[in-house]
Amino acid sequence: MHVHTGDNAVPPVHGTDLGDTLEDLQGVHAGIDLIRDGLRLLALDRHDLNTTQVLLATLAGSPDSTDVLGALAHLITRLTNPDTNPALRALPLDQQKEATHQGWLTTHHLTDPDLRTSTSTACAALDH
Questions:
Q1: What pLDDT digit, counting tens, does each position of 43-95 carry?
Q2: Which residues of 77-111 are buried (b: 16+ CB within 10 A; e: fewer)?
């Protein structure tokens, strides 16, 4: 999608998939609001090629998952494990185990190096 704006300005996110998603996440938790603010800032800031490459790698381009997507994956593991989230301890053991297993699966999928191939390829395409 090519959006042309006057004076080569950075286009707004309102009315885009990103903007709609950010709006849908509003008010869930103060931490999510901070993430939303950060994502909006990243989307609306003017970047050069070097910064764009660094941001792509930092968001989801590290083959060893040391990126934002990897951090989210590990947070999911933390939130789905009764050892690190006491709220789960009130659940029956079978539900705790299921939550932990599903969290582990999510983290396994989100830390898969293949998931980062496209972002890494995009980073390489920006090399100058």
A1: 999 999 999 999 999 999 999 999 999 999 999 999 999 999 999 999 999 99
A2: beebebeebeebeeeeeeebeebbeebeeebeebb
SS3 60: helix
Q: How far is CA 83 from the centre of its chain?
A: 24
| pTM of this structure | 0.89
Six token digits for residue 27: 């008010």
Q: Residue 9: what pLDDT?
A: 87
Q: 46: buried, middle or exposed (CB in 10 Å: 19+, 13-18, 0-12)? A: exposed
User: Could you give the CA distance from residue 84 to residue 24 in angstroms, rounded to a whole number?
Assistant: 27
